[in-house]
Amino acid sequence: MENKSNQGFLEKVFHLSENHTDVKTEVIAGITTFMTMAYILAVNPNILSVAGMDRGAVFTATALASLVATLLMAAFANYPFVLAPGMGLNAYFAYTVVLQMGYTWQMALAAVFVEGLIFIALSLTNVREAIFNAIPMNLKHAVSAGIGLFIAFIGLQNAKIVVESATLVSVFSFKGSLEAGTFNSVGITVLLALVGVLITGILVVKNIKGNILWGILITWILGIICEVTGLYQPNAELGMFSVLPDFSGGFGIQSMAPTFFKMDFSGILSLNFVTIMFAFLFVDMFDTLGTLIGVASKADMLDKDGKLPKIRGALLSDAIGTSLGAVFGTSTTTTFVESASGVAEGGRTGLTSVVAAIFFGLSLFLSPVFLAIPSFATAPALIIVGFLMISSVLKIDFNDFTEAIPSYIAIIAMPFMYSISEGIAMGVISYVVINVATGHAKGKKISLLMYVLAVLFVLKYVLI
């Protein structure tokens, strides 16, 4: 009787039959989505720790931000979308804003927090949708593809497959590693990362559920075997740590104190701060809207006009999640494209999201496991996620050079300039200039907003 009453309650809350689904389907879908994106729990602390943030605190912030934002998605929109700190956005946070531009991670968190507040305001109006419609579709696809290359490049660096050299970058030398006596600490991890890429690739080809997560786990297990047998020898001086989980502190939740409410608003009035915040805003906006439209179309949730009925609730949960995530101590929280895996399993309502959120909650108690996962095990995930993102390049119209050249410029600028925001700026500027100079601007009806964005980006280069 109790089971039937529970099902009745869930039916009433999530309108399961109306959405042609049931409890079992939704639970399986929720678990599947969590499995496909749980890698963020290992990858995000690794990336943000490069910016000087505490890995344990970032782990807790990541799990908590994912939990809260995903529950908000279920409450506001009843959609099977799951949220977490976004890939690409975390790389921009750590590598561009902190390491390249010299801002503290506390200032970067402040930019994310303000971006979230602006998003909340934009989500309560139609502004966010208007901005989405203003940017040419080809440029949106280019941003996604460029981020894919950027993420893959970071993965190659994290695994030390690609290293600095006289030619800027070159491939890791196994011969040099053997001669220097560092093969057992560094060389073996590079080899494991390469094996991990192949394993993850095979799992993706075989369409194994949770392929990216399984790729991380298998590579990590191989690392554990190498450490136990003495083939891998941790060396803290070289940044190579033990891959064995440390349960000495028990299974308690890692303290979020080192990152909680540590935002620094001292530079909020500077042009640089506005630029950073806008870059977060821009990337998050198109990442989220693109994901929502893409996954919703797979699930047949779009109406006859190609619009998502409850998009405002979905955008609002994303916006609130971003600001809360910054308070907790993590980069921009966004809707994950991996939600498509749960949709493929039949997930159609917010119950899918609730199940995934519960698993993020459970993961809080397993931090020693996730924090022991080394960067050489998560690097293959970055490289393969890069592959999944660069596939957007296929949607660009290469027959129209006024569309293709700006898209190409946006794509190559991201990895070569080591910055997502530079890629976006270059793409927008070149799009406007090329179309105006060749007389195509009128025919395409380029929006006023695009001209404004182009001018702002040009001013950024002139003034900064």
TrEMBL record:
Transmembrane segments: 27-44, 56-83, 103-122, 142-163, 183-205, 212-232, 354-373, 379-396, 408-434, 446-463
Species: [Clostridium] clostridioforme CAG:132
Annotated InterPro entries: Azg-like, Azg-like_bact_archaea, NCS2
Pfam families: Xan_ur_permease
Protein name: Permease
Chief location of this protein within or outside the cell: membrane
Keywords: Cell membrane, Membrane, Transmembrane, Transmembrane helix, Transport
Entry's localization field: Cell membrane
UniProt keyword Phosphoprotein, yes or no: no
Membrane topology: Multi-pass membrane protein
Family of the protein in this entry: Belongs to the nucleobase:cation symporter-2 (NCS2) (TC 2.A.40) family. Azg-like subfamily.
GO MF annotation list: purine nucleobase transmembrane transporter activity
Keyword Cell membrane assigned: yes
GO cellular component assignments: plasma membrane
